[in-house]
Amino acid sequence: MKLYIINGPNLNMLGIREVNKYGTDNYDTLCALVREHCAARGVETVFYQSNHEGDLVDKIQEAYFEGADGIVINPGAYTHTSIALLDAVLSVKLLCVEVHISKVEEREDFRQVSYIRQACVATITGKGLLGYIEACDILIGDNQQ
Ligand code: DQA
C-alpha cells in the first residue's frame, strides 16, 4: 500500500511559523513521524510540500498515475480558496483525508470554507501532527476492509 502525504503553502515553515498555532516541530519531524508510523504497518509513503497551487495539482495527479491508494492532504491556505485542488481530487477518485494542524473551525471566518472537504472521506483538525497519523490510519483501515 502506498500513501501520498501532500502539504501546501507555508507548511515547510513548521517550527518557525506561528508556533502557538502550529507547534514547534518542523516539517522534517512531521515526515519522519508519519513515515515511521506507516512503515511499521507495511505502508509506503511519498511526501510532497509546495507553496504553488499548480504543483499541488500535479502531485495529486501523480498519485493517481503512480498507483497510490490514498492521499493525506493539508492544503494550507489553499483549503479556503482552491477549486483546482478540489477538482484534482475529484478527477483522480482516490480516497483523500483533509488534515489541519490547528482547529480551523475556531479561527477566522475565512478559514470556515473548505473547497476540498467535499471530495474527502474525512477531515481532521486541531490535533497537531498526530492528525496526520489519524488520517493515515483511516486510509489504511479503509483499504484493509
Ligand atoms: C492550516 C490552516 C489553514 O487555515 C492555514 O492557512 C494553514 C495551515 C492548518 O494546518 O491548521 O496554512 O491548514
Give me some keywords for this one.
145 residues, alpha/beta, Rossmann fold, 5-stranded parallel beta sheet, 5 strands, binds 1,3,4-trihydroxy-5-OXO-cyclohexanecarboxylic acid
User: Order of strands across the biggest sheet?
Assistant: 2-1-3-4-5
User: Given the helix and strand composition, which structural class is it?
Assistant: alpha/beta
Mean pLDDT over all positions: 97
Which kinds of small molecule does this entry bind, naming each only once?
1,3,4-trihydroxy-5-OXO-cyclohexanecarboxylic acid
Listing every helix as H and every strand as E from the N terminus to the C terminus, the arrangement reads EHHEHEHEEH
Oligomer: single chain
Rounded to the nearest angstrom, the distance between the terminal CA atoms is 13 Å
**CATH architecture designation:** 3-Layer(aba) Sandwich
Query: Rg from C-alpha positions?
Result: 14 Å
Strand tally is 5
Query: Ranges with pLDDT <50 over ≥5 residues?
Result: none
Helix content: 25-40%
What does the largest sheet look like? 5 strands, parallel
Q: What's the total helix number? A: 5
Tally of separate domains: 1
- Overall body shape: globular
CATH topology: Rossmann fold
Description:
The protein has 145 residues and is an alpha/beta fold. It has a single domain (2-143), classed as Rossmann fold (3-Layer(aba) Sandwich). It is built from five helices and five strands, in the order βααβαβαββα. α2 (27-39) runs parallel beside α5 (130-144). The radius of gyration is 14 Å and the shape is globular. The two termini are 13 Å apart. 1,3,4-trihydroxy-5-OXO-cyclohexanecarboxylic acid (DQA) is lined by residues 10, 74, 76-77, 79, 100-102, 104, 111.
